[in-house]
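Try it yourself: sequence plus flavin-adenine dinucleotide, in.
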Amino acid sequence: MQILACFKVVPDLDQMPAGDWLVDDRFRVETGYVKNMLNPYDESALEITLRYADQARRGNLPLNLTALTIGSKQADTYLKTLYALRYDKAVRVASDRDIRFLPEIAAAVISEYAAEKNRADVLIMGMQSGVGDNAKTPLLTAEYLNWPCITGVVAIEPANNGTKNLLKVKSMVDSGILEQTVRPPLVLAVSNAPGTYLRVPTLKDKVEYGKKPVEVQEMDNFKTGLAAANTSGGCRLTGLKPINHRREGLIIDGETAAEKARILYHSYLRERLGKL
Amino acid sequence: MTYALVLNGCSKTYPDQAKALTGFRDAFLAGFPQGKTIIIFNEEEKKQSLINASATVLVELIKVERYQPETVLTALQNLEHESCRDFYLFPGDQAGSELSVRFASRMGGSSLANIYSLEAGAGSPVCRRAAYNNYLEAEFSLDRKPYCLSLQKGFSAHTGKEKPKPPEMKVIEHNAKELNSNKAGTGINGTGAPDDSFVLDYKYTESDETTNLESARFILAAGRGVKNRSGLEKVEKTAAAIGAEVGVSRPVAMNAWAPLSKLIGVSGHMTGPELCITAGISGAAAFYAGIEKSACIAAINTDPGAPIIRSSDLAIIDDYEPVLEELERLIMENKRIEGEDR
Ligand SMILES: Cc1cc2nc3c(=O)[nH]c(=O)nc-3n(C[C@H](O)[C@H](O)[C@H](O)COP(=O)(O)OP(=O)(O)OC[C@H]3O[C@@H](n4cnc5c(N)ncnc54)[C@H](O)[C@@H]3O)c2cc1C
Ligand SMILES: Nc1ncnc2c1ncn2[C@@H]1O[C@H](COP(=O)(O)O)[C@@H](O)[C@H]1O
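Structure, out:
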């Protein structure tokens, strides 16, 4: 099974001070000074892939894992970590284009890579990523490739003891779990998948595998993909501004926690609760 | 300008979908000529109640064996390719969002997921949705028909007025199998769109977890500050005693201290209680969007700099545990006194 996992490195926007949301005339926002992180859904996708790999290796099934990101050099530390976690190949498509709100371009590059360079059976990615929050890339990728897509994925494992390259895919649908045996190729999209924080590589694996150079490809080499992207899309960003979440924020003071609770209750909550 | 509302009648959330899409239509497409409603459904017995919830006179039903995105997409495509509408509106859940994007791609139109407003006039339509993890609002202009839009999760319009029901509905029935029979697997125009044959077998297990978060009037929300599963269990006990519904932030659900069905926020439940008490929650925008409609928010957090403090009506800067203990004691005492009075 050839699996291609796509992820994006994003700024940890929860660390942005409230007053620092300044948007310039090209709708850019300076987020460079907060720490970056793996987009949470992508982190889950990467871990779900590793869990599949654990099972495939135990069953001696053929397996090749590639991790791909489109972005700047800051992604390289994550790509190295993925090498240490036993991804076979870590690829970065270098680009300085502003594709925050152009999921068509990410999808075109990813689908071209999957079809022509990687020959992936399965593409796994997050359902949505900051900063654009487009929630479109995996869906568009599936459409560009004419592959089916499963959303809300929480786990994958080899099916039928790994014969015929089949997969068992668990996904959240409405309020239940759908378990399907499927035949690749297909695109899997991950959103909330409890208990799938990315594991940490062992020191030994870091030394043994984590030093491989990241493969860097230029975005300009994805001509067909980009041409496709130019004819699709149809959404132009025309505005960007902070959302105001401010309320009164009245701080209740007291000597002890219990006293504060009493003031909160007697002065504010009792009446409100009485009306419920 | 013409429009179609697309509803998933195979889902338990159908009534909410219908309400949200009707509200959106009334708020932003009121001046448009009658649109139509397309309902995907699988159970014959439910057909009439599905039709009754429709907001338009014209209803087109597509019967499927089960809700399967590839089948539904091809059926929609085959149904609409000859007389394509200008707007297609989809519900604000995973399925709606998926359909809007993939359907637009197949029809050569533009799509946006998670929108909460639309200005449709003479020129290009303009839509708004959140970006930057809910810290910013982004505005987009759409250039290509059909415009396929899915609503923000939990969207509800406050148009106030109940529209009278249209007197008589015109219902047209289709079957996905028939719609797709000539074209299955190839889509229209020989696009090679996939059908459902990649699924060899499937099993659906309904979760036995239930929550009433969306309709709850009193919510106690717990965050990473509760530190572990036993911390959360204590909060759950308190909530049960004081009559609050428990909700949690993403780290609590991700650590599996509570089931995902308790998650509040853009990727969980969008709530609107009379009172929401948050304990050990920092107030990230992706969470806050889920409690924004609360009439009153009271936050308990040890950090005076936590964003939730500025975004709450009332705040206590302290350890949540003794605060909740005292609140529970006071509420229980009050309940007892009220019980004696009665
Ligand atoms: C695409 C995407 C979707 C997301 N969707 C959601 C969503 O739907 N819902 C959601 O919740 N998050 C969501 N998030 C995550 C969100 O950005 C935050 O990471 C998350 O809400 C933080 O949860 P928290 O407040 O519990 O944890 P933290 O941010 O870690 O905050 C913990 C707080 O507890 C306080 N604290 C610690 N100890 C105590 C104590 N003893 N007493 C009182 N206070 C204490 C701390 O001061 C701190 O403020 C999403 C993120 C992304 C990228
Ligand atoms: N620049 C990128 N590089 C790699 N994968 C991406 C990139 N942008 C988006 N993706 C993938 O597409 C998913 C959805 O992103 P989006 O459509 O932008 O919300 C993400 O969770 C990633 O898995």
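One thing you can check immediately is this: Chain A has a mean pLDDT of 94.
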